[in-house]
Structure formats: structure tokens, C-alpha cells
Specification:
The protein is mainly alpha-helical. It has a single domain, classed as Winged helix-like DNA-binding domain superfamily/Winged helix DNA-binding domain (Arc Repressor Mutant, subunit A, Orthogonal Bundle), CATH 1.10.10.10. It has 4 helices and 2 strands; from the N terminus they run αααββα. A two-stranded antiparallel ribbon has the order 1-2. Helix 1 crosses helix 2 and helix 1 packs across helix 3. The longest helix is centred in the C-terminal third of the chain and has 15 residues.
């Protein structure tokens, strides 16, 4: 897997479950936006690409919620919790075509 990729974020979300944006960055890349002087743009863009592709989704956290995700158990300022969506497996169309062809032969 390539370093610093959307796939790495998805892998972390599948392994550890729902997380805030900062928790994803800490777990997947070792980047903490609260203590780092570096820009968050690269990681935020990766998260947006995952959302646009439909492989990551998010839900809004109510303002009075307590963060019960795996890294922190204290109240959070995060507005969203992110999670990996389920991948839908589509069976190979060639196999289905052959099954339909075999069924139609049996009808005659």
C-alpha cells in the first residue's frame, strides 16, 4: 500500500472503526494537527477524495456528544465522525451471461 494515501485511511477505518479526522491522521500517518506545525491540507484533501469516491462516509456529531472512539474518551470539538463504507461486490457479468445462456438453452 502506498504511503499517505486514501487507501491507507480506509484501511485504518476498517481496522479500528469510526474515528474523527484527527484520529484518522494520528493512526494512519502519525500526524497530529494540534501539535504539528505542518499544514493539514494534504490530509484534508485525501479525506475529501475518499468522501467523493464514496469509500469513506461521515455522520455529524451532536454538539453535546462525548467522544467514545478508540483514541480519546474526552469531549471533542470534532463535528464529524468518519467511517469506511462497505464495498459492494458485483459478480462478474461474463459468468452471469453464461448462466443465462445455459438457462435459455434448457427452456427449448
Amino acid at each position: 500500500m502506498t504511503r499517505n494515501s486514501v487507501k491507507q485511511m480506509v484501511s485504518v477505518l476498517k481496522q479500528f472503526g469510526p474515528m474523527t479526522e484527527n484520529e484518522i491522521n494520528q493512526t494512519a500517518f502519525g500526524y497530529d494537527r494540534n501539535t504539528s506545525f505542518g499544514s493539514n491540507k494534504k490530509y484534508a484533501d485525501m479525506l475529501r477524495r475518499g468522501l467523493a469516491k464514496g469509500i469513506i462516509d461521515r455522520v455529524e456529531v451532536p454538539s453535546n456528544a462525548v467522544n467514545l472512539t478508540r483514541i480519546n474518551t474526552k469531549p471533542t470539538r470534532a463535528k464529524f465522525i468518519y467511517f469506511a463504507t462497505r464495498e459492494i461486490e458485483v459478480p462478474c457479468s461474463a459468468e452471469l451471461d453464461m448462466e443465462m445462456a445455459n438457462e435459455s438453452e434448457n427452456i427449448l
